[in-house]
Amino acid sequence: FAGYLTGVNMVLDNTYDIVSWLDGTLPGILVATCANMPDQPVAAAAVQVLQVLAPQRIPAAEKPEEIVVGEQKRLLYPSVVRAMQQALKDRGQSLVVDGDFGPGTRSAISAFQTANGLPATGFPDARTMVALMAGMPPGAAPPQ
Prior knowledge:
two-stranded antiparallel sheet
């Protein structure tokens, strides 16, 4: 399970991330951040991305659960599902925050995706997760 944002998080106690680098979303955010900071080293942009995403870290290891929507699959920690549900509820969606990825959660994600210009699949892909959990629009750089 590739749940670490950086190699640093792999060696820190109680530090797990909501999404991994593997699907290209976070590298895209880093590239956008670098474009907004052309005179700064890449490390400065990486630190900025990490600072924006840091509040979403998971403090304890959990057994990840497989989330399946159609043919798409991913592993998520139950606490990430609960945090995602809470973020959706905070944005006006009517759903139970229980850590169970069911039809209500899929429907709420689909509505969020539609409202944010993402493909409305109901699947919690990394672009959706970053937009929802870190408040960053797809393809955007973190605020400076």
